[in-house]
Amino acid sequence: MWTVEKRYRRIEEVEIEEISNLMVKVKNCPWRQTFHIQPEIGLLNDPNGFSFYNGEYHLFYQWFPLGPVHGLKYWYHKKSKDLVNWENVGIAIRPNDYFDSHGAYSGSAIEHNGNLYFFYTGNTRDENWKRHPYQCIAIMDQNCKITKMEKPVISEIPYGYTDHFRDPKVWKENDTFYAVMGAQRVDETGCILLYSSPNLLEWKFEGEVQTSLENFGFMWECPDYFELQDQGVLIFSPQGLEPDGVMYQNIYQSGYVLGEKLDLKQKTLKHGDFIELDRGFDFYAPQTMLDPKGRRILVGWMGLPEIDYPTDKNEWAHCLTLPRELSIHEGKLIQKPIKELEKLRKEKVEIDTEIDDETRRFKGFYGESYELNAEFTNSTAEEFGIELRVSENEKTSIKYDSRTKQVIFDRSLSGEPVGETFGTERKCTIGSSTLTFRIFVDTSSIELFINDGEEVFTGRIFPSKDSRGIQFYAKGGAVKLKATKWNLDKCTIEKNSADKL
Ligand code: FRU
């Protein structure tokens, strides 16, 4: 039973033996990933503080160490030279002050005066369990030593908004720092608030960002504003949207609007429709950063709140997505896996063939963690696709139905079920007659990039160890197929011992 006491236990107060026992359970889990960031124990959620500082990439995540539940949140720190191989640095922010006593919630990072500043939400609860959020600053030096400011920099919730006020994302323009904040109006609709500061310490409430999404869910979490190819992009995770056709199938959504640049004086954002970032099952609360190569890179949480996952019984939950490089094409964000991931490629197999009303397997096409690139052309088939992690009783299907022009990701037979009440299929419409699928398969996840990042589907799957087959099929006609598969190496992550957590 996850009582309040259990959810709010502090890792500092737990015997090493208990942590070692949790680590053993995690180690025995058949679904540990090999090239994704995942927690050593406990539950990971949002990516935080994603940045490049002092010659390295830094990425933090929301973390409850002592079980696979949303409890007392810490920030855990990873760093990397290449965004592929990661080092465990340790706990970055501990929720041990009056202003973050019930969780060091999500936030972002920016370099200033030679240090890395974190702007995050301190979550607190009073004796009646009423929430009060504070917006807080912590500062990291070149040795990765982090010091919190003694007091929060924003203690008041602006008039007209509720205590759902969190997740600052900061950026700098000319000499001024700005931050967007996720918020809820008193009428229980979601929105974004804008703040400004000359020095990251004194913040002024500028007002609500006026969008054309007046009544769009009850709370907007994890906003992120940036400019790309001369356009303004606002990413956020609205809660409370109803399913609409193939859209909004998950418990909560994550998406973006594109448009003119944010008018910082008028606080207006003129934009197009809200578009979901990912069409899959497990994707939420992404965060972006601008890297020294000028790339806008996004990482998301490969998970969703309020759903049980099969890894829970092994005392851990969730991972982060692979980093994706963003660009804009024809009014849409295009997401491509970053180039550096090619470093993981090992043994390669290729085929160039035709599949004609049949299901086929090919030599070398099997495995548990690999990258698979498939190009389908000249289709006369009613349906064609790829089945992954196949055994006698299990398979995960990625298929194209040419009658409806839909790509379908079907995990109904993938193994241990997850989030079944939200359905076992995700779909999206693709107009083009040539289709490319670039698929990253890890022990318990699939990331599918369609047509070079036009659409992305991310989903966890929990197959048994011996479900390793890959097969290609076409029904009611033929399709030409070129496919390449690389086994992927494990990324290196220096392992922690219980006393280093
Ligand atoms: C999104 C979120 C954020 C919050 C954090 C707490 O998943 O709910 O709004 O800051 O998680 O862990």
UniProtKB/TrEMBL annotation:
Family indicated by similarity: Belongs to the glycosyl hydrolase 32 family.
NCBIfam families with a match to the protein in the record: scrB_fam
Enzyme class label: hydrolase
Gene Ontology terms for molecular function: beta-fructofuranosidase activity
Domain Glycosyl hydrolase family 32 N-terminal, residue spans: 36-337
Protein's recorded name: Sucrose-6-phosphate hydrolase
GO cellular component: a single term: cytoplasm
Pathway linked to the protein: Glycan biosynthesis; sucrose metabolism
Keywords carried by this UniProt record: Carbohydrate metabolism, Cytoplasm, Glycosidase, Hydrolase
Biological process terms in GO annotation: sucrose metabolic process
Summary of the function given for this chain in its UniProt record: Enables the bacterium to metabolize sucrose as a sole carbon source.
Catalytic activity: Hydrolysis of terminal non-reducing beta-D-fructofuranoside residues in beta-D-fructofuranosides
Gene3D superfamilies linked: Exo-inulinase, domain 1, Glycosyl hydrolase domain, family 43
Cell location: Cytoplasm
PROSITE patterns, per database record: GLYCOSYL_HYDROL_F32
Main subcellular location: cytoplasm
EC number: 3.2.1.26
Ranges for domain Glycosyl hydrolase family 32 C-terminal: 340-482
Lineage: Bacteria, Bacillati, Bacillota, Bacilli, Bacillales
Database matches in Pfam families: Glyco_hydro_32C, Glyco_hydro_32N
